[in-house]
Amino acid sequence: DPKIRGFLVKVYAVQMSKFDQLLFLDSDNFPLRDPTYLFDTPEFQETGAIFWPDFWHPSFSIFDTGPGGLAWELFGVKCDDEMEQESGQLLVDRKRHAKALSLTAWYGHNNSIVQMLRAVWGDKDLFRLAFKRLSVKYHMIQTLPGLAGRNLAREKSDLEEGSNFCGQTMVQHDPKGEVIFLHRNTAKLDSVSGKVMTWETIQRYGGINVANYRVLMNQFKMADTCWYFPNMDDPELNPKYEEVTFGHIEAIAISRVTALETHIRKESLAKTSRNGVAKSLLKVLYWGT
Fold first, then answer.
1. In terms of C-beta distances under 8 Å and separation of at least 24 residues, what long-range contacts does 32-38 make, across chains too?
2. According to the per-residue pLDDT averaged within each range, which of 88-97, 119-128, 160-169, 261-270 is highest?
3. Rounded distance, CA 164 to CA 120, Å?
């Protein structure tokens, strides 16, 4: 089907998998340890589906998911106080939730109007909305996403808001609140900026009220898109900083992607060279007849 491309590949990969139970990870998402224990958690055993929260909430979103928003009307679901879904990782029992996954695929296949109106984006919330539409239970991880990044020098005036912290990786947690996934979804590994080590510090939200959770964006001079938590001086909301102990994982990922790109370039050059030789031989044969 020519329509199955882009984000839709994920939706159909999950639905058509040969595994009854699966953990799906985006290609730029890295587990910090063996994640198979998630299948044995009470949350998965009870519901058969674990989803992870995004940066956005109905009270603060770049999509039309607020109270009275278009997303709820289009999908026939009642607005609630839940965080939006970040689908860079999802855990699901396909057998148990075959109907919900089929509805997710249908949403994805007929999603052009939703995309055009920016009600939701890509596959991001389709799984969650399909489960809600069918009144099917799932578990949403309660620990809000953190940020892994570094501090960059940044010139700014006294009146300009912002932060020197440049978060380019979402930090996701397991049901007990322990860090388990690092979704490097801003500085892509196949980009120039993606070859730079960025996991120096973790920034976590320090508050307990979901409605106060805010993630803002900075645009640095070197064109890096960076995310950070505001309210740095608020004692209730002040983000907590932690030193990163897993930078070696990022180094391994960058080296392997670089090696793969080098291999692909060599193969492409070799193929181009072989094609050039073949064309030259054809010309010789042509002129020789």
1. 32/179, 32/180, 32/181, 32/182, 32/246, 32/249, 33/180, 35/180, 35/181, 38/91, 38/174, 38/175, 38/180
2. 88-97
3. 30
Residue 108 has pLDDT above 70, yes or no: yes
How do beta strands 49-51 and 139-140 pair? parallel
pLDDT digits (tens, 9 = 90+) for 130-165: 999 999 999 999 999 999 988 886 655 444 455 688
Measured CA to CA, the distance from residue 85 to residue 52 in angstroms comes to 6
pTM: 0.85
Q: How many Å from the N-terminal Cα to the C-terminal Cα in the chain? A: 46
Token pair belonging to 23: 């953990």
Give the phi and the psi of residue 46 in degrees, each rounded to 5: -75, -40
Give the number of other CB atoms < 10 A from CB of residue 116. Answer: 8
